[in-house]
Amino acid sequence: MRPGFLFCHDPLRPARPDPEFAAEVTAVRAAGAPLALIGHDALAAGDPRGAVARVPRDSGPYWYRGWMLPAVEYGELARALRERGCALMTPPGAYVRAHELPGWYPVFAELTPRSAWCPASPGTPPGTAALTELAGQLAPGAGIVKDHVKSRKHEWDEACFVPDLRDPVRLSAVVRRFFALQDEALAGGLVVREFEPFVPGGEARVWWLDEEPVLVTAHPDTPADRPRPELTAVRAAVAALGCRFVTTDLALRSDGRGWRVVEVGDGQVSGLPRGSGGTAQAPSPGVPAGDDGSGPDPADVLVRALYGAPAAVRWGR
The whole model's pTM is what? Predict the structure, then answer.
């Protein structure tokens, strides 16, 4: 059985897909793939059975393409689908491994900025002593703070960047502000990373399916770019991670030392850039060109690759 696709429904019109994913919904329908809707708000409210009530029973395996889910909610979604005789193509363990930094960091350690982390709860930032110990695991100099999944890079100076990790006063201030802004959305705990200088606006997002890069796009924050990163070392790390559908965000160092992995993510909750034709690494025959004529449409490439994937889950962890 070929896989189908799960999208979040429009909060105001539950019978319709969320318009945020319109391009992919169109591609799914054009491919003739099964499509079902789930309720993101119901899932967040602790009602996973209600969230999947519109999914037909025994309708087969699904790729989820929707809003980012905390690990607990993803596990609840998987259980609710199993009760209806359905399954997710990415099991919960693989989702967490790709989605949260402590899961993917060990196999990408040589390709990404050095990082240290500690558990923490929303509203309870670590104290100065704990932060000093955490920062002491990294080299002196600048760093950034984030949680297991997200940073506050758009509040760069107040809640992300630390000019000197050996300055406990400034480090504590940035961490406190980060926790205040993340609030209940804090994922997993606190991560501190060494800062590396990158070329502005040159970040690439690479989409991997069964260890192969099926699509390279710009990062959603810089949709007009056409990056072409070197992928040899990244390919080996993706294979070692052992997750079927992942993304890697890469940036080019400004000092000429090559491409670095900035983030790894579960492909199901990674976003395509708006208005970008993307660059297909291995485009499927007959995939139409993007709106600007520069290449295949990324939504079509992604959907066709996922729809053609074997339904059997190769990694069940």
Answer: 0.91
